[in-house]
Amino acid sequence: MKPCMDDPLAQDDSTYQRPAHCSMCNVIDCKQRLRSQLAPAPPTQPASAADILRRAAQLIEDRAALRDRPSGEKSMLATVAAFNLIYGTELTEVQGWHFMELLKMVRSAYGVYVADDYDDKVAYAALAAEAAAS
């Protein structure tokens, strides 16, 4: 077996060997190992729904300051337009945000609790609602 170079932990640990059954680190054992070593510990105090909403709002504001255009255009509209062009589909901006919500739902279903999975999902839901209302 050779070291698993898709595993960021293995890149610094020449003694780590990829399990024989592992195909490019895309099996549960490898994912659980990575999550357990990279994921932050759950908060000692459970976050309230209001706390999660505030964090999601802050995420939207922080990311808008870094990535949105001065006109206010967000990246999802351009993303679904490119996806539609490449794949011949007709996804809407709202569906793009829903896709991202599903991604976070799937990620949160495996492994340990990662607050980011939930914070982002809440933010994506708000962005979907904003897009639907416009």
List keywords for this structure.
134 residues; mainly alpha; 2 domains; 58% helix
In a few lines, what is going on in this structure?
The protein is an all-alpha fold. The protein has five helices and no strands. α2 packs across α5 (115-133) and α4 runs antiparallel to α5.
Q: How big a fraction of the residues is strand? A: under 5%
Report the C-alpha radius of gyration, rounded. Answer: 18 Å
How many beta strands in the DSSP annotation? Answer: 0
User: Describe the biggest sheet?
Assistant: none
Give me the number of helical elements: 5
SSE string: HHHHH
Distance between the termini: 54 Å
Structural class: mainly alpha
- Unreliable residue stretches: none
Mean pLDDT equals: 78
Oligomer: single chain
The portion of residues assigned to helices is 55-70%
Globular, elongated, flat, extended or rod-shaped: what is the shape? globular
Number of domains: 2
Folded structure, characterized:
With 134 residues, the chain is mostly helical. The chain folds into two domains: 38 residues, no CATH class; 90 residues, no CATH class. It has five helices and no strands. The mean pLDDT is 78.
